[in-house]
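Supplementary Note 3. Input sequence used for the single-chain structure prediction.
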Amino acid sequence: MQDAITSKSDPVLLLRHDIDFSLEYAVQMAELENELGISSTYFVIPENEFYDPFSDIGKEQIQHMQNLGHEIGLHYDTSKYNPEEYEKDFTKDMQMLSDLIGEQVSSAAQHDPTNSLHLNIENLITNEAYSEKIRSQFAYVSDSSMQWREKTPLDLIEEGKSFQFLSHPIWWFANGETQADKISAIANISPEKCTKAIDNLNRALEKRAELDNKFKKEHG
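The predicted structure, written as discrete structure tokens, is reproduced below.
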């Protein structure tokens, strides 16, 4: 992320991946990018219901991505923070992840930013994916909920724009054609977790226009 921000090239691609569901698929993407000579930022959620980054296998997978030349960043979920002590909660998450990767985390990205409480943590981290600094420098495109908005990455490439591309490894590497197929393919996922995840994604899609407009009004 920092390399993209400080690059003298024009246009620039800031490539990032939010690991919402599976470290396994993130590793597959990280290995492919490494083969292609690409480095990107992978954002890890410290505490979530789909994978454990602090388990032996979780640590191994994250450190493997790091050794491939990718940045590991913090994917923080403000729904789990105490609004009165959010700086403490954020700093705890950042320090836990920093200890895991053996260096200070310098990039962060909020989980589900259009549908969760915005908390100002920019003074606690070098780079925040939805900060005004980054939004003013890069257009934005995402495969969130496995559905593009009005533009795709190819559209922005053709327009010659610098842009931030958020992709979720599960949509590109899990077997199947639909959200349900791909989430069901996660190793050892329970039917209850699968149903809950799909319902959440569908609700986000139904309210996407409303939530996007709210985010733009609040953040510019």
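The chain has a mean pLDDT of 93. The CA atoms of residues 30 and 194 lie 24 Å apart.
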